[in-house]
Design a protein that fits this description.
Layout (H helix, E strand, L loop, with lengths): L3 E4 L2 E4 L7 H6 L4 E4 L12 H10 L3 E4 L9 H13 L4 E4 L4 H11 L5 H10 L8 H10 L1
Parallel strand pairs: 2-5, 3-4, 3-5
Antiparallel strand pairs: 1-2
Length: 142
Amino acid sequence: MDIRRLTDLFSAAPQITPADMPAVAEAGFRAVICNRPDGEVTPDLQTQAMAEAAKAAGLAFHIIPVGHDGLRPEMLTETAEVLDGSAGPVLAYCRSGTRSTHVWALTMAGRMPTDDIIKAAAEAGYDIAAMRPHLEALASKG
């Protein structure tokens, strides 16, 4: 597994497997967000298999798929609800972790300074500097 910590309460990762869920729980995570649509993966990695494995490992599992149609505002609301309601750190995954990082960054706009969001992503290996105008616009809406 390639878990990339962005904050103490949020990490992103490329695709994980059902077999990874016990290690995710052992690493201290309390919830997992799947940002990958079922249409992109084989049946063994689809949300039903992942949700069952998460539950068996004692993890909450949330499905917020980001497909080719892009991000919708409700995805940010759902992500905020997961982050705010989690009993501990949250791990989000997609194919490479990039979509999960984008969703997190947009969710954090207005909650964290834009520079801190961009820096956290960069330190985790995700260059989101081009998102600055969008992050700042969301932050200004409060």
